[in-house]
Every structure is written in C-alpha cells, then in structure tokens.
Amino acid sequence: MARPLRIEYSGAIYHITSRGNARLAIYEDDEDRRSFIKILGDVIDRYNWICYAFCLMDNHYHLLIETPDGNLSQGMRQLNGVYTQKFNWHHGRVGHIFQGRFKAILVDRDNYLLELCRYVVLNPVRAGIAAIPEAYPWSKVQGQIFIGSAKFVGEMKPLLEGKEALQEVPKVQRFAHRPDLKTALSLKSGGDKEERNKAIRGAHFKHGYPLKEIGRHLGLHYTTISKIINCNE
C-alpha cells in the first residue's frame, strides 16, 4: 500500500492521531501518560510547535498541532520514537507499539480549528470514561489570550510586555510584542563576533525566534546557530 502523502508547510495546522499496534493499549498506567506528555512538551519546544489541544486515550491519542517551521514529520518521528523506547523500557518489551504511520489531516484554521478543539477534548466523554471534559486529567485545550485581526493583535502587544516566560500564554502570543528579526539581530557598526553571538542568543531566548529562522537571516547553517546558543562558539 502506498504511503499517505504528507503536505507540510510553515503555519500548517493538523489533527493528528496515532493508534496502538493491533489496537492494543499505548498507555498502561499513569507513568506512561506522564512520560508521553513530557516527551510531547520536549518535541513542542525543540521543533517550535504550537499545541492547541491534546487527548490521551488508552490505545490512541489526538493532537491539534500548528507547525510554524513546516516540520511535522521530523517532530512526529521524535515523539513516537522516543515514547516507544520509554514504553518498552518501562514494561520490559521490544518492538513497535504504534500501528504504522500516524494520521495527519490538514485543518482549515478559520472554519474548523475551534470545532476540532472541542472534538479532541470531548473524546473521553463520548467514550463514557468522563462526565465532562474537565474531569479527564489527560487532555487539555491550550487557550488563546486574544484572537483578532493583525491590527488588533498589534494594539494588544503592550499588554504582553514582560510576560514572555508565562507558560499559560500560548507561545505564538507570548512573543507578539517582539521586534522583527532584523532589529533583534542588528549590531553596532564594527561589532565583533561575541556581540553577534549575544544578539543571536537574545533573538532566540528573549524573543523566541527559532534557530533555522535566525540562520536563514544571517546566512548561517542552523547547526552553527545551535552551537552559538549553547555557548560552543
């Protein structure tokens, strides 16, 4: 059977599902669920994803993910691969736990995003294992702080000054007030290498710009940017 086509681009939103092999459980206890959520958080940070909602059922999971850098397949390999290793180690097993490739459906942001958020977190209710979504501990909707036109978002920027570190503010909006990348990386005339590296670290840590975006702007490979971020250059 031909492998399903993966359409990946910057800013794409996907409803992702992945099921257990032969419909077997992919989470056998709460330690498995906590492990998966920890790995998911690491993948979100590493690949610059935005997670709008998730739900962990016994033999499958749902994610509603935006990929600002167009890197869905990379992140999903990391997520399912690392979790499989952790699961097998925890239970003394070997082999696959997921049934083939994950399923990812592109989402129309304007018409279906909110409806899919509802769908994802209502899974436990439909399955009869929770009376209301809030009673199920293994799902969450990542709320927006504001929704509106670019003009409205621009007007709201001052309200987010100094709040970049608040995790309850979605990543895409934590940095709504940040300067553009050209300004963030601007150097004084005759600036040396250390000044450049300091600007790079500021653009990443303070203003939230991903490594690849910084690299493209400066004409440097993202691995070089990674070394600078980690103070290896």
- Principal-axis shape equals globular
CATH architecture identity of the largest domain: 2-Layer Sandwich
Calculate the terminal CA-CA distance, rounded to whole Å: 47 Å
CATH class of the largest domain: Alpha Beta
- Which value, in Å, is the CA radius of gyration? 20 Å
CATH topology of the largest domain: Alpha-Beta Plaits
Beta-strand content estimate: 5-15%
Tally of distinct domains: 3
Number of strands: 5
Helix and strand sequence: EHEEHEHHEHHHHHH
Largest sheet: 5 strands, antiparallel
Our count of helices gives 10
Mean pLDDT: 80
Across the major sheet, the strand order is 4-1-3-2-5
Low-confidence spans: 143-150, 163-170
Pairing-aware structural class of the strands and helices? Answer: alpha+beta
Q: What is the CATH homologous superfamily assignment of the largest domain?
A: Transposase IS200-like
Helical content band = 40-55%
Spell out the key features of this protein.
233 residues, alpha+beta, Alpha-Beta Plaits, Arc Repressor Mutant, subunit A, 3 domains, 5-stranded antiparallel sheet, 42% helix, 13% strand
Written description of the protein model:
The protein folds into 3 domains: about 10-140, Alpha-Beta Plaits, CATH 3.30.70; about 150-175, no CATH class; about 180-233, Arc Repressor Mutant, subunit A (Orthogonal Bundle). Helix content is about 40%, strand content about 15%. It contains 10 helices and 5 strands; from the N terminus they run E-H-E-E-H-E-H-H-E-H-H-H-H-H-H. It has helices spanning about 30-45, 70-90, 110-120, 125, 150-155, 170-175, 180-185, 195-205, 210-220, 220-230, and strands at about 10-20, 50-55, 60-65, 105, 140. A 5-stranded antiparallel beta sheet has the order 4-1-3-2-5, covered by helices on one side. The longest helix is centred in the middle third of the chain and has 20 residues, at about 70-90.
